[in-house]
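Please, structure for the following, as tokens.
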Amino acid sequence: MQANDAANPAAHGLERHGPGVALERAGAPPGTRTVEGRIYGDPPWNQPGEGGQQNYSFRWTNDTVMNRAINDYLRAHWEQIRSDLAMNLEHDATFNAGASVGEGYYNQRMFQPGAAANPQATFITTRWVTIVIRVVPGNPPGFYIHTAYPTVNFMGGNVITQ
């Protein structure tokens, strides 16, 4: 992922979800990108192009877990990925990695009125991953991972560690 993100300016998997992103707001210097801070829309999340306030935000547990989950997915689904890239110029999927791959927060009030104005971040770990792969035009065309990040599937068996 490090080489992927470095070679593709639009890629942002590590910048927003890498294991080096600070987890908690407490003690982080002002303006520091934190996983918890995304639930509250803290800077820099509230800047244009940064995704804004979200109801859930996760980071990878570590580089080994991240690379293994992504590579396992690519190998197991390569025919579908290749077909999607040829037909749609993009492949996106959310999948169960089988074991915990990330940690982060969700807004416990996300389905309540006024949730954005008064969020309540709750810590959980997750085994779910979202991946978006895009075509790089050329002859021959290539592809890059636009983003890959741990995500949440409330119906699909997250590991809750409150």
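Residues 63-88 form the longest helix (26 residues). The two ends are 29 Å apart (CA to CA).
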